[in-house]
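User: Round two. Same drill as before: sequence, then structure, for each protein.

Assistant: Same drill it is. First protein:
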Amino acid sequence: MMKLLPILLFLSLSIALIAQHKDETDINEEALSKPLVERFILDEIKSLRQENQSLRTQVTEQIAEAKLESSDRAVDYTTSTINNIFYIITAGASLLVLLGWRSLNDIKKSLKIDMSRKVDNLTNDYESRLKNIETKMAERSKTIIETQQDITNTNSIHSLWMRVGLEKSEEEKITMYDEILNINPSDIEAMAYKADALLEIGEVRWALNLSNTAIGLDDEYAQAYWQRACAYARLDNKAEAVRDIKKALELSDALESELLTEKHFDNLHDYKSFKELTAHLGESN
């Protein structure tokens, strides 16, 4: 037992020394490894910064290249558009040359000629319209004047007929009939009554001619035939007188009542045709 004690002490000391040496070794190793770790971290950070800088440079270059490419495209588009416009202008100019428009002066002259033609056409159109308006105004004025004159003539003729109805002298009546015929030369009624007045003053030939004129203007006017029958009876042309009497009666039944009372037919009362006519009328009545 006494022999083992020294051994055990020795072993204990050895173990203690070994443990102490180990602790010192760990401390030394830890002291030595710490700077290395820090160095490694610093190197890694530096490497990361360099990579980041390189990446930033690459991105900047790519953006610059993209902008440059976009600018090139815009320049190319602008150039192409300008070239196309020049091509169109050139083609238009060529077309104008082919069509005869060789210069701006020609265009101006053509425009002037065209404008002058249009102005002339408009002027002619307005002149034509103005002439039509003037013609219509002249026609209307003429119509108005004629209407006024007709009214005046109608009033004058009416006044003369009123005076004829009041006049007793055949000569004065003839004068008034002449005034009526001066206003209206184709007034066949005035001619017939004038013929009757002429018969009253013995102007038989004149009355016959005037009756013929009235019949020439209107062959359906019964009074004209009646007056001519009176003239024929006064001239002893009995056959012609009876013929005109029949014609007058055909045109106007109202004259039947005057047949036997007409004094210019006195020399026809013994004429056979006149007797037959009056007898026939008597039977009809």
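Second protein:
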Amino acid sequence: MSRSLPLNALRVFEAAARHGSFTRAGDELGMTQTAVSYQIKLLEEMLGVTLFLRQPRQVVLSEAGERLRPKVAEGLAKLAEAVGDLRGASEQKLHIHSTPTFALQWLSRSIGDFQLKHPSIAVRLSTSQDVIDFAKEEADVAIRWGKGDWPGLDCHRVMRMNFTPMLSPALAEAIGGVKTPSDLLKLPIVSARDDWWRSWFSAAGIDDPGLERFPPNELGTQTIDAQVAIAGQGVAILNPGHFRSEIAAGQLFQPFELTCNDGRDYWLAYPSNRRNVAKIRAFRDWILATMPAEA
């Protein structure tokens, strides 16, 4: 019986019992009187008892119906309470999925402002380089790197993913300063196989920088590349927008104004059919207001 519990019929029964009328129950539930009568009949046939006595111009609960009514009303109330509690808990927790670099270099430094403005919304942050499937992953919004053309998602650009070489001032001084792009090739190149390097050198007028002579390291994230550069161990190709604090503190130095972009930026993305969920709307409005210059 638990597998075929007729919840809809029980809901109709409870309304009809409460109103003492199939017509008024139908009005409450948006059903016709005939549809209400049909659901009650199905329930009676399943249970093998008569629940209502049909009298001229009225229906009256039978003895079996009187016994069933309070239990059904209590059960439906508990279900409604459980669903309401779950929905409330879900509404108060915002699950953000982000790339590791954006999470470390921007979200971790700014999310406190969002929580000050929205103290009733708790934040859960997950990080991964993977592009998640919202239909399979438990996330409300995602910060993605790409072109913002994902089907079924609303997307808002939040940061331009420009890139340019950066290094520590001390490393630049070690070779008497970095005055031309070719000077960079006198220094260790961090993540030399990154396509950004070849794009930037080409834009700087160096079509064959000889990057293959450097170790083919792959460190995984810009944050790690930046730490190598801050330590004076090489030149990294980075997005300046991520490292403003390090530049301001004199830890990183951008020797050339030339920046490039390969058409991929950071985007806030979420399912289009959830655009009006309050917590998603609150985060969207906050991040777009906080990063207007970037967006």
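The chain has a mean pLDDT of 88.

User: Perfect.
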